[in-house]
Design brief:
This protein has about 400 residues and is of the alpha/beta class. The protein is built from 13 helices and 18 strands. The protein has two domains: about 100 residues, Enolase-like, domain 1, CATH 3.30.390.10; about 260 residues, TIM Barrel (Alpha-Beta Barrel), CATH 3.20.20.120. The protein binds D-mannonic acid (CS2) and magnesium ion.
């Protein structure tokens, strides 16, 4: 089954998505998500200029061989751009394999290990009352797990919190990133009060999650984790900058609040120590940024040996193709934990027709062959790329800070 064409489509139906389309000689087409938020064009070029020409003529059925060829063959390994490009090829080939077999992808991955995939939604507020309203809205939609974030009093803008209640947070379009402000002491005072507020109002019958966005030092994170213990979080996400794996030893010595990390990971080497030393509880890597199904499955298999579960990244800047791929993997692996479901906004459904579903807090990828997502290239052409950047975070004195 020879590949006859591989092309990259950059579109912005609500926000920027990079989609790889792979065609084969017998008419089966596969798609993969190659979106890297704020660096979309770098991955598009990596694919267009260096990968697509290598794909034409290859056998689409040889997924593992193609993965190794692109990873080892380039000499320059890992990194978000490379691994996102490889991921898009990998997912497109899995899509083709599923369609050729007439089976949904999860069947090829060993079949369903559960009836549905527990997902968490995002509640946010510009105030505690605003957060409560958004939390109630998520409960009414059926979510059983909800991430809670609220604006820290005194800080004008913080990434991860919608600018107005009832909206989602998205970076504004433009050629330069917005600049946010940050103050760790104010946040550390506020965060436990925010979580306490939600527990007092809504009780303990729903899972609570919270994203720290890499903004703390290990000892600060230890203090926060300890303060949050009475509220039984499902997890505290990205407490410290993720690349410093041994820092998590300090955090672990100070709290039993479960820890999740991984949305910036792009290979198994980013979490090898975190997993084998049992320094985290959930790996949040995504299919799109971590080398596709082939590589992320390997990460989750390593994690399984050490009692670490999955918690894949599922933000709105990963396209519906990535969401579908994640759901197939989530349904099949033994050590699934939870899946993020931020959802998509804007006219994305004109471009991506999905077959996944949500009901009672659980999602299912559907039973269409392959990924179950149809990509409409003509519709994509109506929504051209718009430059849009993630914000930069500065402390009150102007120092650039992690976020
Ligand atoms: C967030 C994301 O979903 C999350 O947990 O941290 O909004 C993340 O910042 C973006 O996906 C980055 O592109
Ligand atoms: Mg996050």
């Amino acid at each position: 089954m020879k590949i006859t064409d591989a092309r990259v489509v950059v579109s912005s139906p609500g926000r920027n998505y990079v989609t790889l389309v792979v065609e084969t000689e017998d008419g089966v087409t596969g798609i993969g998500d190659a979106t890297l938020n704020g660096r979309e064009l770098a991955v598009a070029s990596y694919l267009r200029d260096h990968v697509c020409p290598l794909l034409v003529g290859r056998d689409a059925r040889r997924i593992e061989d193609t993965w190794q060829y692109l990873y080892k063959g380039a000499y320059w390994r890992r990194g978000p751009v490379t691994m996102t490009a490889i991921a898009a090829v990998d997912v497109a080939l899995w899509d083709i394999k599923g369609k050729a077999a007439g089976m949904p992808l999860y069947q090829l991955l060993g079949g369903a290990s559960r009836e549905g995939v527990l997902v968490y939604g995002h509640a946010s507020g510009t105030s505690l009352d605003g957060l409560s309203e958004d939390f109630q809205r998520h409960l009414d939609l059926g979510y059983r797990a909800i991430r809670v974030q609220a604006a820290v009093p005194g800080l004008e803008k913080t990434y991860g919190i919608a600018p107005a209640d009832g909206r989602v947070y998205e970076p504004a379009s433009g050629n330069r990133p917005q600049e946010d402000t940050w103050d760790t002491p104010a946040y550390l005072d506020f965060a436990p009060a925010m979580i306490a507020h939600v527990r007092e109002q809504f009780g303990y019958g729903v899972h609570l999650l919270h994203d720290v966005h890499h903004r703390l030092t290990p000892i600060e994170a230890g203090r926060l984790g300890a303060a949050l213990e009475p509220y039984r979080l499902f997890w505290m996400e990205d407490p410290t900058p993720a690349e410093d794996q041994s820092a998590f030893r300090i955090l672990r010595q100070h709290t039993t609040t479960p820890v999740a990390v991984g949305e910036v990971f792009n290979s198994i080497w980013d979490c090898q120590q975190l997993i084998t030393e049992r320094l985290i509880d959930y790996v949040r890597a995504s299919v799109s940024h971590t080398g596709g199904i082939t590589h992320l499955r390997r990460v989750f298999s390593l994690a399984e040996l050490y009692g670490v579960r999955s918690g894949s990244h599922g933000a709105g800047d990963l396209s519906p193709v990535a969401m579908a791929a994640a759901l197939h993997l989530d349904l099949a692996i033994p050590n699934f934990g939870i899946q993020e479901h931020m959802g998509h906004t804007g006219p994305y459904a004109e471009v991506f027709r999905t077959s996944y579903s949500f009901s009672d807090g659980y999602m299912h990828p559907g039973d269409a062959p392959g990924l179950g997502v149809e990509f409409d290239e003509e519709a994509a052409a109506r929504h051209p790329y718009e430059p849009r950047y993630l914000p930069v975070n500065r402390r009150l004195d102007g120092t650039v800070h992690d976020w």
